[in-house]
């Protein structure tokens, strides 16, 4: 008997003729009982799932994370009980997806855009997803603005083109975006490829140890290959011959055994609001100064295997900022809180309610839940001793709760419920100016050239306001953009501060409640 594999239908039936539909005679009509054809064509019609609204263009690889067992020179257990960070030498499997943010699935990888850096750690205690980007900060600090931001950055709903004026119309009203704009419009906005770029959690998390003590933490990944970026001219030259150059580079490097590697580092801060700083440490539009909060090595991340099927793994991989393991916890970062709802909700819509049953998303330590059924369910999670029992608690052999920690983390939380804006805003301009001055001359020149081209495409009110912003970040910054774009600098400088926003450099104090009458405690920020 031959061991040769034969083509079958998805029902397992051997296909004896894959060349012809079933018809009445050679030229006659097709019949309704054309099951192999119907199965084949209807599945083809459904080969694509909804494209990610953001981070649609991406590529990925498998690898591992190996913890050093230390955070800097201290035992990792001092800060966290997360085994993935404390167990030295253990190789935790990972899946890392790189992406661009705004463009569609087939958009060029030379786009000026932040790059996604999403990691799924398959730990012994279940999955840990760390979903960030390459630039360590973001455009906004409140998740309620995210749909507006993406709408402004996406193509115009009428012209279907990305218009600079839409981007800067949004940015002009959000000074906290200036820091990210300064990064993105410089060569750092176009990484040379995925192997030569940094990764970051962007958001602030907490590490929790066995005593139930917590510290604030940010995660960073520094490429052992070094950092390389492109100017606009270099990106245009590459795009002319290859719109998927970064995907090709990563795939080829892994295939030839040149496995890319990053060192995972953390920055740590005590868990309080740090009034001595000009910014809130939970503000994701700000970087923690590395001279005050140094990068402490934690472990290494290596990519050593390409996906066997891009759709099954890369496209159906699903990440969520709420997927944490014990020893890593949420901070009150408003963007993190909003993303935690949005990301997993997106996956349930895009891939389906049972997306965690797919091999690329399933935890390798197994899942045991009482959750059942739903679209595309194809197995039942291990239900304990008695498969009749899909509820808890039970005396009949159902699943039981895990043992509670001896010292859990119970922060005290109190305050007036309301809608607040950040009160520490000096660094909306300060950090953007520092970034501008930190660039090398060629990076500054590319930044200015990119912004000049954009300002020329913006209506005058938007261009004037952006020059006003750039000038308050750094006088040379604003002057060079104004001169290059033919904008009257003096007219721009005469603009008043944005309505409802403090003047640049002013520290707005948070409102203090003195009334004992709840109805008088209004949290509106002037």
Explain this structure to me?
It comes from Caballeronia grimmiae. Decomposes hydrogen peroxide into water and oxygen; serves to protect cells from the toxic effects of hydrogen peroxide. The protein has helices spanning 35-45, 83-86, 146-153, 164-172, 178-184, 232-239, 245-255, 310-315, 334-350, 427-438, 441-456, 460-473, 475-485, 489-493; strands spanning 58-67, 70-71, 74-75, 91-100, 115-123, 126-133, 199-200, 205-208, 214-223, 261-270, 296-305, 328-330. The longest helix is centred in the middle third of the chain and has 17 residues, at 334-350. The protein starts with 34 loop residues before the first helix and ends in a 33-residue tail after the last helix. The protein has 3 domains: 1-47, Irregular (Cytochrome C Oxidase, Chain J); 58-357, Catalase core domain (Catalase HpII,  Chain A, domain 1), CATH 2.40.180; 429-493, no CATH class. The chain has 526 residues and is of the alpha+beta class. The model is unreliable at 510-526 (pLDDT under 50). The strands form 2 sheets. Strands 1, 4, 5, 6, 7, 8, 9, 10, 11 and 12 form a 10-stranded antiparallel β-sheet that branches.
